Amino acid sequence: MNIDNKRLVSQQIIEDACEWTIMNGVAFRQADNTARHCPFSIAPMSIEREVYNHLLAVTPLITKLIHNVSEDHDFLQTSLSNMAKADPFFGLLMSRHQQLHGDAGNKLIAERKPLLLMRTDFMDDRQHGAKVIEFNGIAAGMGPFGQRAAEFHSFMKNQWPDTYNQWIEDSSAVPADNHGLEQLAYGIATTAKAIKTDFSDQGKPTFLMVVQKNEDNVYDQHLLEVELQKQGIRTVRRTFEQLSTQLSSGENKRLLLENVGAIDVVYLRAGYQYEDYFAPELNEPVCCHTLSQIRLFIEQHHVAVNATISQQLATSKTMQMLLTMMPESEYARWGLSLEEAKMVKSVLAEMKPINVETIKWFETEAIQNEWVLKNQGEGGGHCIFGQDIAEKLNHLAPEEYDAWALMQRLYPHERDTPTIAVRDGEQTMVDDLVSEIGLFTAYYKGKPVTEFEGYAGYLIRSKPASENEGGIHSGKGILDSLVLID
């Protein structure tokens, strides 16, 4: 609810908080090159320590599973072929994957080394416990913002303790450590140095971030770059369009960037949607051909890449559905023990494929508010809820079915006490806040590359329970952090 002329937190404190976020890079760039602070919560959310520890234990296992699935190229081709026919963008990705990993006779040689920087998003459902919402294997950003949110709440606790204690659920709760920015940078730096060593090169390792044109979420990206620079890494940024004329091959499959030199790590913060490959001035007969070929070119080189095309396929909604539906024993194919497989399955929410039978079941038997309909899209705006699902299902052509899936809808715990959300310098009291928990992991060639066995910090995004879209960037979400209760 909105506050009517009565400020529950003094304007001085709100201004202090907003200035802290801007000063520490927790911001979005505006069209006129000014910055606006990220929306944030004035105090953190609490989670039971047991739930949190379970997520810390299971998330690296999910990453291990996804890495091994992503390198099982025959499985990707056979299991996702129908989805690729139903979703044109994934059809494009699948054709590129086929060129790299398909029939031996005509395939290109994939020399790239997989660096899996992944964010696994959970909600702690009131009835079923913590469950996965989705895997994010490409452009899995905002780890830096996650760490900054924890630092912001520490600032509030120290600088404005009365306000902090007024809005926290349990004053005895202990902040959960969050080194997301430092650990993601550590994993990338470790990987970059390993590639550099492969070539016995001198000088600083070089990190290339592939970004969207006119991106507004640049400060999160720059925070990561600054941390990498502290760890001895040179950083550069380019769009796909720029790379189309600036990349070349060196000796021994070394990837070279014009006026920069050899590249050790390529990190894609773009490439998860058609628009990232669309270049109207090229006037292509086949949309997005030229810029999507850049990924093929990169992956033919001895360079660490996140996300590889196969990682993007392996973290698709359809793969999430297939892994959810298959028996635990089948996870042995990807190196998981039965005990590890059971842990992973314990956090996977039920999913169903879309077909004639499912549609009939949904219309006649399902409790419709217990499901959400998802397509393959990344980011906000790709989910359909409640009564809108039946209408959408009735309008889908059969050839579109495999691009969609039904997933058990999660209803997380609402925060016990109201909190203050701050957006554009204005405060609002929210009395039904729920949170989404994203855990980051970093694995290079299937092995953990952080100081915490692959774990690399967390991102909390909270939103009013009445809102469906919880993205910080594209929805009604606010940045948040975690405190632990026993």
From TrEMBL:
Single GO term (MF): ATP binding
Pathway it works in = Sulfur metabolism; glutathione biosynthesis; glutathione from L-cysteine and L-glutamate: step 2/2
Keyword terms: ATP-binding, Glutathione biosynthesis, Ligase, Magnesium, Metal-binding, Nucleotide-binding
Q: Which cofactor does it need?
A: Mg(2+)
Q: E.C. number, please?
A: 6.3.2.3
| A Pfam entry, by short name | GSH_synthase
Give the GO cellular component terms, alphabetically: cytosol
Q: Where's the Glutathione synthase substrate-binding domain?
A: 206-314
Task: State the similarity comment.
Answer: Belongs to the eukaryotic GSH synthase family.
Q: PANTHER family this protein is in? A: GLUTATHIONE SYNTHETASE
UniProt protein name: glutathione synthase
Q: Which organism is it from?
A: Aliivibrio finisterrensis
Give the taxonomic lineage as stored in the record.
Bacteria, Pseudomonadati, Pseudomonadota, Gammaproteobacteria, Vibrionales
